[in-house]
């Protein structure tokens, strides 16, 4: 797997040619498998023979994973993403109330306000040639502020957390960088917990602390900080990339943009097609077979880490047809797996969908002539085969 994250879709196509499940080599020479077929991935995500707990990760348990491994955070963080069975249900139940449809609907006015504020000052950040980095001044601050307000993370901690997450989530980070960033992240999140414990508020962190203190065996301290890490990362990284990828797709497919601007399709349809066509998550680590399993005729040995190939599945022609590589906002929206499937389906999916639709409608409603300032293929990719997006998004806003 290319740790630089270059050419996601070309890599996906090559892997699909080798079958719906293919052996891959991760950084550190760790052997794994990538599942790239839509139907095979859908089945894998609900297979009871597949675990998320790293106790089933053979190479890790046998000491064959190097220290400072760039993918370690995905395996070792304590929280919903690495829990199975009753533990997973226990952790998920504590967080579910923050992402109910009612709670998300209540967040809509705040999301609309943040979008309006960001758009109002966008031109102030324009360079002399008229370009603005839409990633830095719109796609990133919107979801970061929303999730941090929901969690009760103070503003002074937000940018630093994002910088640390960028190191932790980059698959080409150096071991020493990973170790240092991991320690500092734990310290920052511990500070968030301490602040909310001293001054509880109407936020999810305060609610999680209260639940832990009411029944001490329900949520350990490491589970608490691990849950905060998971929610903060997932709550801004994926939505940030979703907005970025949607803008790129619309700017390079102007006829599709016109359909949305004219009202022929909804902005929600634009979001769903972006999730399928160029979703924010490429290959998500990890799942581990608890016994040898067959996926699309390929045997994956027990204890081997498995990557869920979401962007690959999104363009699987066996499911999405011979035009799977085409961005088409009129496509039926119920086919992709970008938020997962089964017990670990993304809790934040309704919030991400709402944020992206509001952001795109307001952005192009205000700047219908917005265009990329450089060719899409020249935009530097995020250095990761897990996250799928670009590091910057220079645009010209138009008249």
UniProtKB/TrEMBL annotation:
Identify the CDD domains for this entry.
CYP107-like
Task: Return the PROSITE patterns for the record.
Answer: CYTOCHROME_P450
Gene3D superfamilies registered for this protein in UniProt: Cytochrome P450 (1.10.630.10)
Question: GO molecular function: any one?
Answer: monooxygenase activity
Q: Does the keyword Oxidoreductase apply?
A: yes
Entry keyword set:
Heme, Iron, Metal-binding, Monooxygenase, Oxidoreductase
Q: Does the keyword Transcription apply?
A: no
Q: Tell me any Pfam family this protein matches.
A: p450
Family according to the record: Belongs to the cytochrome P450 family.
* Protein name per its UniProtKB record: Cytochrome P450
Species name:
Streptomyces bathyalis
Organism ancestry: Bacteria, Bacillati, Actinomycetota, Actinomycetes, Kitasatosporales
